[in-house]
C-alpha cells in the first residue's frame, strides 16, 4: 500500500495550501506552468511527480533553457534530473562539440521544434533525513554562447513535511530451546463384537487406519523433523458393564499399538498408550448438541455422580426411546482412538534458508526465526509486512506475534488490521505503546497521550520520548 505524506504546497501569489496535490500553478517561472504536483514518501524513496506545461516556453535559436527541480533545506540541496530545451543553433553547437546535455546524462533534452507541450515528470530519489521540511523549487536558467548563463528564475512548488510517525517497537520473541510441535486426530476403528483384534480390511478400517498413517508419514519423511512420541488413547461406548469396557479399551488400544509398531518399527518407548473405558464426555457433547426429547434430564443423569453402569441403566430404563436413538446414532462415534504425534523441528539460522522454509512450510518456523528474517527487509515493504502476517497466522493467539503484526500494519497505515491484532496483543508496556502509536497516526492525540502516558508509567522509555515529540509538534 502506498503511503501518502502530508505536503505543504506554497504557491507563488497564492499563499499557503495544505494537501498532497497542487493544481494549476500558472507561470511558476516564465513559460512554464505545473499541474498535478505530488511528493510521496514510500519506504526508502521520495518521489516527485508533476505535469509540466511548456507550450508558452519560447527559446531563441542561439539559446538553451534548463529547467531544474531543486530540493532545498538550509545548507542541504539536491538537483533532480533537469529538462533541457535547445534552440536550433545552440542544439547543433553542442552536437559539434560532443556535448550531449548541459546538466549531464540524466537530463531529458529536446530541440525547441520538438519540445512537447506537456511533459510528465516522475522521479524517485533516495530519501535522506534532511529532506523532511525541504522545499521543492523549480529553477530556470537561460544559456547563451560560451556556456554563459544569461538569466535565472526560480519558483517554489511545495514543501515536503513528514507526518509524525512514532517509532514502532517490534518485540523479539524468545528463542525456543526446542521447537516441539504435535499433530492430532481421532480414528474410528471397527472391531468385531467383543474382540480386540484389528482387521485392516474390516468395514472402514482401511480409511481410519490410513488417517493415522498419513499423519505419521507427514512428519516421519521430513528430514527437518524428529518424532518423539506417538500417543494413543482408546475409548469405548457406555453399553455393556464398565469392567468389560475397560478390558476392551485396553485390549483394542494395545492392538493398535502393535499394528503401528509393525508398520514403523519405532524405538522402544516412542509409542505410548492410554485408555478410557467409557466416553461419557463425548456422549454428553452429542446429547447437548441434539434436539432429542428429555435432553435436559438425560444431561442431568450424565452429569450425576452415579456409578457408570447404574447411570447407563437408568437412562436406558427411564428413556427407552431416546436410549435406542443414542445407541444407534451416538454410541458408534464413542468407540474411537485419539492419537497425537509429537515431534521436534530443527532450528534454522541462515536467513536464505528461513526465507525458503517460510515460502514452503511456514509452520516449521519459530516466532524468533520469523523475526530474524524480517530484520533483513525495510519496514513498510510488502516483504516485511508479509513476514509478520505469516507469523501471526502460524501463532494466532500469541501476544508477541499479534503485537508485531499490529506494528507492521501501523507502519503501512492499515489501521483496521492493526486494531484487530492489538485486540490480541495483551497489555504489556509495548502493546500499550503500540495503541498509542496507532492513535497518533489516526490523529487522536488526546487518546494517544493516555496510552503513551500509561506506557511511560510502566517504564517504557520510548513512550517518554514519543510524548515529548508529540508535545513539540503540537506547539
Automatic annotation (TrEMBL):
Sequence ranges assigned to domain DUF3868 in this UniProt record: 18-99
Keywords assigned: Signal
Pfam families, alphabetized: DUF3868
Classification via InterPro entries: DUF3868, TPR-like_helical_dom_sf
Organism: Bacteroides faecichinchillae
Name under which the protein is recorded: DUF3868 domain-containing protein
Gene3D superfamilies xrefs: Tetratricopeptide repeat domain (1.25.40.10)
Stretch forming the signal peptide: 1-22
